[in-house]
């Protein structure tokens, strides 16, 4: 066996690529980091609904609970635009979009016309809260206190839903997206002002 051939530059770079791919497959943080990088170059952009399709069926009601044990229903938020994101700590696409959701939240957190609900689908408030603190996100966290209707969350996370002031589902996106980009922020601000 020729050691010089075994330790060639080609084999070294191939080994690094294989190691990187294995890390992406088995480590949610690495996969989330790769997805965040792809978001920065323009991939994973959320689609904006066309105006004619922007308002559809009424959002089904459900209830949420916060870290203090206070519960409320989705229907009690009528008159506000609701940005509702379903996620989990183990989900790489969820982790990847969190910085952009946090940026959107920071931009609109003082606006009285909008409510942000980030809902941990595992129902483990403590674990999810520890994750948000570790990442230094300021997002408001909730868990479902009732069955999550399929109209809001199908079988895939992350799922983001925007509910208009009338209580209608105005937007629904399944999969990771960059909600912190200027185009989406402008759309969201325009929507809030309606």
TrEMBL record:
Keyword field: Cytochrome c-type biogenesis, Redox-active center
Residues that span the membrane, as ranges: none
Stored CDD domains: TlpA_like_family
Coiled coil: none
A family per Pfam: Redoxin
Ranges of residues in domain Thioredoxin: 53-194
Subcellular location as annotated: Cell envelope
Protein name per UniProt: TlpA family protein disulfide reductase
Protein's organism: Chitinophaga filiformis
């Amino acid at each position: 066996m020729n050691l010089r051939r075994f330790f060639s530059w080609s084999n070294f770079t191939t080994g690094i690529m294989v190691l990187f791919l294995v890390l992406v497959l088995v480590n949610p943080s690495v996969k989330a980091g790769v997805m965040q990088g792809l978001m920065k170059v323009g991939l994973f952009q959320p689609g904006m609904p066309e105006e004619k399709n922007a308002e559809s069926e009424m959002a089904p009601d459900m209830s949420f609970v916060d870290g203090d044990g206070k519960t409320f229903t989705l229907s009690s938020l009528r008159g506000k635009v609701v940005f509702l994101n379903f996620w989990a700590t183990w989900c790489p696409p969820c982790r990847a979009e969190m910085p952009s959701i946090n940026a959107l939240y920071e931009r609109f957190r003082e606006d009285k016309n909008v409510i942000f609900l980030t809902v941990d689908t595992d129902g483990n408030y403590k674990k999810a809260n520890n994750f948000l603190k570790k990442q230094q996100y300021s997002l408001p966290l909730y868990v479902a206190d009732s069955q999550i209707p399929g109209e809001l969350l199908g079988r895939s996370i992350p799922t983001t839903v925007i509910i208009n002031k009338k209580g209608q589902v105005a937007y629904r996106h399944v999969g990771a997206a960059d909600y912190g980009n200027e185009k989406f922020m402008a759309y969201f601000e325009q929507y809030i002002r309606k």
